[in-house]
């Protein structure tokens, strides 16, 4: 293992492992957090939905799913890794399946399935190493003249879907009901007074700030909430409660995603010999995770040839054998949902 000096310090880096022309590389990174993706993102009654789990840690003993946030006694199912066995929980309806990778499949969903779902990951010491929550909203579909439209329940759209640190995010209200008295925003998943960010009172055309107000929010008359200068502390769920003149209340929730702009990567070149032929290995070194990588040759996107091998994450490029026509300038481009950076060019040979 070698070390690569990055910025003002040195960070251990597991570099290219080259065995029998197999190329593998790693980013400079910390351990990734467990995340859950809803597939499909929106689901209507009668359909199936998969909660697809990403970035599970290595040392996993059990994976436990429950309905709710802090209610693990409402267990849906547990997967026992040591026994390769899925065990249904007390709240199982028979429509759920928990898989070995932690993912949860819900079949033939109904409106009653709407709500929060929590995955807890236990390690071999039976300690909880991760708790991740996802919210499912099951839509009702009305069929009209051969086409369908979702129900007119209020929803929240995050614009943009993922915002860079320091940027602004608009939580835009869609399909608000009629006869509204007020809009009330909460920072988290429950409508508790201490979590209130702000409320807008329609007839007074006035805004009242709550205990969770940070000074960086703007609340508009249509109920939409603008967050300025977002930070990682702003990540998470926001709940909008709409109070109607008939005293009924409707709620909608949205999850805010904040990402850091990527740092500029750099390219390292290593010359080696494989099977008697000269080869070149290019490594795109970046401190960022969950990024896309693109290789550039002489200011154009690199055309992949049979002599070229990319690592699974594309951070490593091997040309074997390397030829005279491969001479030129190489760069790598690193991007995430909010930013893009390109390395300085390096020349080969």
Key terms:
349 residues; mainly beta; Immunoglobulin-like; six-stranded mixed sheet; five-stranded antiparallel sheet
Q: What's this entry about, in short?
A:
This protein is mainly beta. It has no helices and 36 strands. It has 3 domains: 2-29 and 262-348, Immunoglobulins (Immunoglobulin-like, Sandwich); 35-139, Immunoglobulins (Immunoglobulin-like); 155-259, Immunoglobulins (Immunoglobulin-like, Sandwich), CATH 2.60.40.
Account of the protein in words:
- The protein is mainly β and 349 residues long.
- Helices cover 0% and strands 52% of the residues.
- The protein has strands at 2-6, 9-13, 17-19, 22-24, 35-39, 43-44, 49-54, 62-67, 75-80, 85-88, 96-98, 104-106, 115-122, 128-136, 138-139, 141-144, 147-150, 155-159, 162-164, 169-174, 180-187, 196-201, 206-209, 217-219, 225-227, 236-244, 249-259, 266-274, 277-285, 292-297, 300-301, 308-310, 316-319, 328-335, 340-342, 346-348.
- The strands form ten sheets. The chain has a six-stranded mixed beta sheet with strand order 19-27-26-21-22-23, with no helix packed on it. The chain has a five-stranded antiparallel beta sheet with strand order 10-9-8-13-14, with no helix packed on it.
- The radius of gyration is 25 Å and the shape is globular.
- 23% of the residues are buried.
């Amino acid at each position: 293992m070698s070390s690569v000096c990055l910025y003002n310090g040195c960070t251990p880096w597991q570099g290219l492992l080259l065995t029998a022309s197999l190329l593998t590389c790693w980013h400079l990174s910390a351990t990734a957090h467990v995340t859950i993706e809803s597939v499909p993102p929106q689901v209507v009654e009668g359909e199936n939905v998969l909660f697809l789990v990403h970035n599970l840690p290595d040392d996993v003993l059990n994976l436990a799913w429950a309905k709710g946030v802090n209610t693990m006694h409402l267990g849906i199912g547990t997967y026992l890794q040591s026994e390769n066995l899925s065990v249904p929980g007390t709240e199982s309806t028979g429509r759920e399946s928990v898989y070995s990778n932690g993912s949860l499949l819900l079949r033939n969903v109904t409106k009653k399935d709407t709500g929060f779902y929590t995955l807890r990951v236990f390690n071999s010491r039976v300690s909880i190493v991760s708790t991740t929550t996802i919210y499912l909203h099951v839509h009702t579909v009305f069929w009209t003249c051969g086409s369908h439209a979702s129900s007119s329940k209020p929803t929240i759209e995050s614009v943009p879907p993922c915002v860079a640190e320091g940027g602004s995010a608009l939580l835009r209200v869609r399909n608000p009901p009629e006869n509204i008295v007020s809009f009330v925003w909460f920072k988290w998943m429950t409508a508790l007074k201490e979590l209130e960010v702000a409320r807008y009172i329609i007839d007074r055309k006035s805004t009242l700030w709550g205990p969770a107000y940070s000074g960086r929010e703007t609340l508009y008359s249509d109920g939409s909430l603008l967050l300025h200068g977002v930070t990682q502390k702003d990540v998470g769920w926001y709940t909008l409660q709409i109070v109607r003149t008939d005293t009924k209340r409707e709620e909608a929730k949205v999850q805010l995603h904040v990402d850091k702009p990527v740092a500029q990567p750099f390219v390292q070149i290593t010359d080696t010999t494989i099977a008697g032929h000269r080869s070149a290995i290019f490594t795109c070194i970046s401190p960022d995770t969950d990024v896309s990588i693109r290789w550039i040759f002489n200011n154009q996107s690199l055309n992949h040839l049979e002599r070229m091998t990319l690592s699974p994450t594309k951070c490593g490029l091997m040309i074997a054998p390397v030829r005279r026509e491969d001479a030129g300038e190489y760069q790598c481009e690193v991007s995430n949902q909010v930013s893009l950076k390109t390395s300085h060019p390096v020349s080969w040979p």
